[in-house]
Amino acid sequence: MAIKVLRPAALAAAAVLVLSTGLAVSADTTADDAYAAGSPAPLAAAAPEKAVPAKTVSPVGALFANGSHFCSASVVHSGTGDLVLTAAHCVQDGMSFAPGYHDGVAPLGMWTVTGTAVADGWTSSADPDLDFAFLTVQQAGNPASLESLTGANALGVNRGFDHRITLTGYPDSTDSPVVCDGTTTRSDTYQMQVACPGFPDGTSGGPWVTGGEVIGVIGGYQLGGDTPDVSYSAYFDDDIAKLYATAAG
Fold it and tell me: What pLDDT is attached to residue 249?
């Protein structure tokens, strides 16, 4: 869903990274059928990343700024274990991430966002097909990586458009997440949609998870949709793979 806080022109508190040419996420070569004619080919096939086993605290959580949660995000697997995935339109100054947030409680406390990675096409023109972002987080005085405490989903790239997913997000008006199981479909060349009721403002950035992989986040078309009952996501293809390579180092 669209949120009230939009991406600012500049980020003072966190360095913004842009696309690099490196690739770090494997692709499903059977996803060629999902591409529109003339669109880029998927990444070369390789052994996919495996999701880290889930821990006692959910890898899905709420993003906070100025004392309130305003978007959703989730831990994505990385070598450093400190990477969080959300929508690009959620990125702003002074963010913190509360994994497993529920009933007003942050079981692992707040994790400060120390760096952000967004696609240059989002920075220049807010391209809805690039409405995704990676955040680097840390917690002062805690030597453990976030992923070691929460587990993570692997990043799924070029997986096609039709999946049974679990969608999770944090509405602005509640202190617990809403969860829905739904079936995704293609809504445009590089956009997916899912019919799940009750995903209003605040759920932007919430992960679309299937088989231990995150294949979308609420965002994209109309910043995630103009109704709480249908949500959208930019399609995860080579663009997010390149951004992941940049963010994951």
Answer: 83
The token pair that represents 195 in the structure block: 């019919």
Residues with Cβ within 8 Å of 227's Cβ and at least 6 positions away in sequence, in order, are none
Beta strands 96-99 and 111-118, pairing class: antiparallel
- Quote the CA–CA distance of 66 and 64 in Å, as a whole number: 7
CA distance 243 to 249: 10
Three-state DSSP class for residue 103 = coil
For the chain, how many residues are written?
249
* CA–CA distance, 73 with 75 (Å, rounded to integer): 7
Closest-CA residue to 190 (of 163, 158, 213, 223): 158
Q: Residue 11's pLDDT band (boundaries 50, 70, 90)?
A: very low
- The owner of tokens 């997440």 is 177
Between these two residues, 4 and 129, which has the higher pLDDT value?
Answer: 129
pLDDT tens track for 95-108: 999 999 999 999 99
- C-alpha dihedral sign at 143, 88, 153, 39: negative
Q: Which of 1, 7, 16, 32 is nearest to 238 (CA)?
A: 32
